[in-house]
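Q: Could you fold this chain for me?
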Amino acid sequence: MSGRPSPTTAAHVQADLEGRVHAILDGGPADLGVESTVLDITGDVPVILRPGGVTYEQLAGVLKNVTLDPSVLGEKLPQGQVPRSPGMKYIHYAPTAPVILFEGEPEKVRQALSRRAQELAAANKKIGILSTEENAAGYADRAKVLTLGQRKTPSNAAALLFSRLREFDQLKVDVILAEGIETQGIGLAVMNRLRRAAAEIVRA
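A: Sure. Below is the predicted structure, expressed as structure tokens.
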């Protein structure tokens, strides 16, 4: 459904479209996890409207010039401007619980996220933490932690992202605290989706 975390398994499709479709063909989990790259080639310079499986670096390697639409980096569309591609709306891919995204150096992100988790725990909030494997153990005593894999393998994060957000819905958490990852390669697509899903972004 529009605005929700995208389906990457047949079970996700069934959860979203139960009673709306007559049949679902299950081809297994999506290999990539995030949606396709959308490239606008109507102007002089190709513009990436939505990063996906074909990365900026790959496109830059074969095109004379390519640029990113400002919305890819999390900027809001100007008032009145119609989105030119799916996924360009400010809030998109969002689970039921609000997502707070922490960006910056990994250690500063860990510290800032831990502080916020302590504050929310003191307020009796049920917390979900979306973490890299490197930091997961440090959060386990105060929240339900789901991981996106190691920082050096952003392809794992891409494959797991939407599934993890849906798991937090099933766990009925009150808030999700998410670690950001580097925006190199497919990491840009992961961060684009997280920024779109986020109700708040913290620069650590």
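A (continued): The beta strands are 38-40, 47-50, 67-68, 99-103, 127-131, 144-147, 175-179, 198-203.
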